[in-house]
Description:
The complex is a heterodimer of chains A (about 110) and B (about 110).
Chain A: E1 4-7, E2 10-13, E3 19-25, E4 31-37, E5 43-51, E6 54-57, E7 64-66, E8 76-78, E9 87-94, E10 100-101, E11 105-109
Parallel strand pairs in A: 2-11
Antiparallel strand pairs in A: 1-3, 3-8, 4-5, 4-9, 5-6, 7-8, 9-10, 9-11
Chain B: E1 3-6, E2 11-14, E3 19-21, E4 23-26, E5 32-38, E6 44-50, E7 56-59, E8 62-65, E9 75-77, E10 86-93, E11 101-103, E12 107-112
Parallel strand pairs in B: 2-12
Antiparallel strand pairs in B: 1-4, 3-9, 5-6, 5-10, 7-8, 8-9, 10-11, 10-12
Amino acid sequence: DGGITQSPKYLFRKEGQNVTLSCEQNLNHDAMYWYRQDPGQGLRLIYYSQIVNDFQKGDIAEGYSVSREKKESFPLTVTSAQKNPTAFYLCASSTGPIKTFGSGTQLSVL
Amino acid sequence: GDSVTQMEGPVTLSEEAFLTINCTYTATGYPSLFWYVQYPGEGLQLLLKATKADDKGSNKGFEATYRKETTSFHLEKGSVQVSDSAVYFCALSDQTGGFKTIFGAGTRLFVKA
């Protein structure tokens, strides 16, 4: 079955450390997205990519970086510049307006 | 810019009660409207959609009608079950290919047996 796989499910970051969240899809979707979800809040767009080797900043890109070297993969790096990284991170993909989501990664700070 | 406003939760209902979760939007043009559902510890899943005015989306007993005159897309279900307990998100996508989706803040629903 096609879908989106996010790993790991849980991730802990030490102060000053960069961490990378994985997102892989086998849906043959062109567009991929990263969202951040904080408790009781909606989803905020971090980065999105419409095609391979191209990506754009979303509403809260500071402290994050991405790459899109393959159509199937869109990893997100949370850098040490992100001072409040604790959140639930969701990856999504689409070929149009309907998004397909992964099951998320919970990032916490040690 | 475009925005989505939905009723604050949590909403607590007894099993078999009627559910309404209100959603209103502001947008230029004619967006597509969606309801997504998120179960604990999981990502969002599309529940239903409507792409033009007066369209009714429906799935699993849930319904919502695209009302352009009131800029609303309220979610309803006639008889909720314990398994419907989740967070529900109203969302819109603009006409430009739908790459950017605006989500509401989400409404948590608790259904008691």
